[in-house]
Amino acid sequence: MRLVQWSAFIFAGFMSGLAGALFVFAKGSIFPTELEIARSFDALIIVFLGGVQSLFGPLAGGVVFTLLQDWLSRFEYWRLFLGLLIIGIVILLPNGLVGVGQWMRGRFGGPSNKLEEVQEEAG
Question: What integer is the mean pLDDT of 33-46?
Fold first, then answer.
């Protein structure tokens, strides 16, 4: 198990370094403003928005966050609106937007999780 954890850690570090190198290559340079606190919170907001309990959650959160950022940035206090939206999602939808899709699939009879069916049959 330790080997898997170390491998995942090394792979994540490699991918982060590659992403940073590609970012600098694409932009031509990098400045400290790229790492300001508001930008750091964006990643956290993306994860909370999509949902922390699935692999698809951060991807969906990234898409929704980008769309919201484009739409809300027309207003002067767009970060305030985004913050209030995130507080509402964390309180009302603790599993994020992906959790809503999973709930609707279970509620309205969509395709269910095969693992849960096997576990129920096993007793």
Answer: 81
